[in-house]
Design brief:
about 0% strand, about 70% helix
Length: about 550
């Protein structure tokens, strides 16, 4: 029995972890318990050195000292402050007035606002709940099909998972050993393409089945004149943005960095025109045009403050998150909505989410230390490298596996449990890990939309009218899950969607991943005394570092 267990300890450990998760044990404790228990079993069977298990506290300290993870509380706090300051309500009201009289216009407004919220708040729950409270009743009263209205709100809210500054991209960057800035650069274009696919679907439904997405009635000719004023202001902003993108100082940067700067410059010009029109009483712009400039410019400025500085190499993602959190506080103060209750609620939820993430990460590191120590990574590599089709077969199986697991696990659990097992195999097959990470992020986005456990569906159900059947919410999500699958196929077929902006980029100092193995090699890491009684100690620890962090030795810059 001992011989069989020693030969099959890795698959037994993996099966035990799955059973722990299915039994309802919290993920962090299930992973840590498996790591400790099977670590002791491995020592008893002679597969592990006791010094390897003694290195676990050093692993935990490496996680806690990882500067990259500081971006998670910063971006979470930024999103929660913006959500509670009423930015979503202002955006939905303004964009809804702009597009509402078009066929399918309210649904278009929801998708566009969802993309803006994704690029500023990065919090799925906040986006879905805000749009569900404000837009869903209006869409239902306007005669929209309940399934279409529910689906477009849930899908637009989940854009926060793929459009930077997404939290899942930070976690994936940490697990894959790649800079967060590269993950952000790689995910921006797929996020925008996915937004475009949502818009195409909504417009197609509105065109083919007008009764499902009717236009709001035109109140009077004055509204039409106001919209013409908006489009004129928009044209001026576009021309200003194009001119700004041609500045010589920007030509050394990537296309996405230039595009972000152009959007911000164009928005700034529109905002300055609106300010001058109001202060000087010129009355050149209709009220709707001024409102669009005043409502859209602050989030655009915040997007540039966060993403633009990262893309231009002026700040690391952690610094960008800190600036974003400060900017969110200033925006809330400018709206006169910054108070003690808002701060208390935002800080409370930020601490809860950050603690949740760190506990899972610590548990996964304890699990992976033992799992790699008993050569579990070799077992996984043998299974996956033996698949027919080579790289293509591996990607198809992995994408299918992640899609199925997303029915039962949320994206944090997938990132901390599955990705560390897949990354070494992908690297051995020569797959670009940034592209692989974005591919996983797009796939894991479906975890929020999967009936019957999708969190976005539950968020909408909690604020939807009681008269709206739950089955309509679930059925409404199905077409958008299909669109997300199409997006996965697009990223698979056209890797340039991700890699186009990863050629020559400028990074701020510190825009890299700091792993625990890096920490152990640093001068600040505690060292074991020379002449330790366990002669195999140093070799065991070096082996653990090589296996737990297989990517740490690469040049991630």
């Amino acid at each position: 029995m001992s011989a069989w267990l020693a030969a099959n300890l890795a698959p037994v450990m993996f099966a035990a972890m799955v059973l722990f998760l299915l039994s309802g044990v919290p993920v962090a404790f299930a992973l840590a318990a498996c790591g400790i228990v099977f670590g002791l079993i491995g020592i008893e069977l002679g597969l592990l050195s006791a010094s390897l298990v003694q290195a676990m506290p050093d692993r935990v300290w490496g996680v806690m000292s990882n500067d990259t993870l500081l971006a998670i509380p910063f971006f979470t706090f930024m999103g929660l402050v913006l959500e509670r300051s009423g930015m979503a309500e202002d955006l939905l009201d303004t964009v809804g007035r702009l597009f509402g009289t078009l066929r399918g216009g309210l649904a278009v407004a929801v998708v566009l606002v969802g993309a803006l919220l994704a690029a500023t708040t990065g919090v799925v729950a906040a986006s879905v709940i805000s749009m569900g409270l404000i837009s869903l009743p209006i869409m239902l009263r306007a005669g929209y099909d309940a399934r279409l209205a529910s689906g477009v709100i849930c899908a637009s809210g989940t854009l926060a998972q793929i459009i930077p500054p997404s939290l899942v991209l930070i976690v994936l960057a940490d697990q894959l050993g790649r800079p967060v800035g590269d993950m952000y650069r790689g995910a921006l274009l797929p996020g925008l393409v996915l937004t475009g696919l949502y818009l195409i679907y909504v417009l197609a439904v509105a065109w083919l089945r007008p009764h499902k997405a009717p236009a709001l009635p035109e109140a009077d000719d004055h509204n039409a004149a106001e919209r013409r004023g908006v489009w004129a202001l928009f044209a001026v902003a576009v021309l200003a943005g194009i001119a700004a993108s041609q500045l010589p100082a920007l030509q050394a940067h990537t296309a996405d960095a230039r595009a972000l700067f152009a959007v911000t410059a164009g928005g700034s010009v529109a905002w300055l025109i609106a300010v001058a029109d109001r202060l000087l009483h010129l009355n050149l712009l209709p009220d709707l045009a001024r409102r669009v400039a005043f409502v859209l410019m602050p989030p655009l400025a915040l997007i540039f403050l966060v993403l633009g500085t990262i893309y231009l190499g002026l700040a690391t993602p952690t610094e960008g998150g800190a600036m974003g959190a400060t900017g969110a506080l200033l925006m809330a103060a400018a709206r006169r909505r910054l108070n003690r209750d808002l701060l208390q609620q935002a800080l409370d939820r930020t601490v809860r989410l950050t603690t949740f993430v760190l506990f899972i990460l610590i548990g996964s590191r304890v699990f992976s230390l033992t799992f790699y120590g008993i050569d579990g990574h070799l077992w996984v590599e043998h299974l996956l490298l033996g698949l027919p089709g080579g790289e293509t077969g591996f990607l198809i199986v992995v994408m299918t596996l992640v899609f199925v697991l997303a029915f039962f696990l949320d994206f944090f659990e997938l990132a901390f449990i599955v990705v560390p097992l897949l990354a070494p195999v992908a690297d051995k097959l020569g797959i670009d890990l940034v592209w692989f990470g974005v591919l996983l992020a797009v796939n894991m986005q479906t975890s929020f939309m999967h009936p019957p456990f999708g969190f976005a569906l539950f968020y909408l159900r909690s604020v939807a009218p009681k008269t709206l059947p739950t089955r309509d919410i679930y059925w409404g999500a199905v077409p958008f899950v299909g669109i997300q699958i199409v997006m996965v196929a697009l990223v698979l077929a056209v890797p340039q969607l991700v890699t186009a902006n990863l050629g020559t980029v400028q990074r701020a100092a510190g825009d890299a991943v700091t792993t625990d193995a890096d920490y152990r090699r640093s001068s600040s890491a505690p060292r074991l005394p020379a002449g330790h009684p366990d002669a195999a100690l140093e070799a065991a620890i070096e082996k653990a570092e090589a296996m737990v962090e297989p990517l740490a030795g690469e040049d991630v810059e």
